[in-house]
Amino acid sequence: MAIKIEKKITGYNVITEEDKLKAEQAAAEQKAHEQKLAEIVQLGEPLSRPDMLVGNTYKIKTPVTEHALYITINDVIMNEGTPQEHRRPFEIFINSKNMEHFQWIVALTRVMSATFRKGGDITFLVEELKSVFEPSGGYFKKGGKYIPSLVAEIGEVLEQHLYQIGMLKKSGPDEHQQKLINEKRAEYMEKHAKPGAETNAEGFPPGAQLCNKCQTKAAIIMDGCLTCLNCGESKCG
């Protein structure tokens, strides 16, 4: 087929078989890229805020802050009026008289609230927050539980709230394990506790060590084995 050239020729180039192969490969890569983009599943638009939300406010008092922190978690009711009705966190606010941590607390609550509204699984936030450690060291809260940082305590509160609304299920000792733990506690108090010795607020011996599993001062030596009276963890299996 003849092609009539009506413009002035300013240059030319010979297309080789290699050039044709490269052009075909580029076209194939572009097509594969477009197909990959088409497979991306969007989570959808963030949840819109209703005029009224239900929620809980939790008070925490720590040795690292002069004043108590008040953590409010508001929930949105999903699928209301159906068998699938459930609550899920929608927003979180943290308030305190102490302004020392104000900047990062505001940033944290905004990021967490945005994650809540995006939908999907939010339970991963609990472990992410609880795994934050303060470089200068953590503290023990009432009951002997070790808290590695103030951020981790916020994670503890979120975990407690998710348990309450049913988004998390507690994985504590089963009935048989709890019975064994109670027997071990009674045996220890009978054989090893000094007369008149008092237990701590959680009912564990005052000389108990920190359990590496549940981070609670409830581990005691019995029969030459370190055993936790809170979660049942034992070095002897």
Characterize the structure shown.
Helices cover 34% and strands 18% of the residues. A 3-stranded antiparallel beta sheet has the order 1-2-3. A 3-stranded antiparallel beta sheet has the order 6-7-8, with helices on one face. Helix 3 packs antiparallel against helix 4. The chain has 237 residues and is an alpha+beta fold. It contains 5 helices and 8 strands. It has helices at 17-39, 102-118, 124-130, 150-165, 175-191, and strands spanning 54-60, 69-78, 86-95, 139-140, 146-147, 209-210, 217-222, 225-228. InterPro entries: TSCPD_dom. Keywords: DNA synthesis, Nucleotide-binding.
Topology:
Blueprint: H1 17-39, E1 54-60, E2 69-78, E3 86-95, H2 102-118, H3 124-130, E4 139-140, E5 146-147, H4 150-165, H5 175-191, E6 209-210, E7 217-222, E8 225-228
Antiparallel strand pairs: 1-2, 2-3, 4-5, 6-7, 7-8
Helix pairs in contact: 3-4
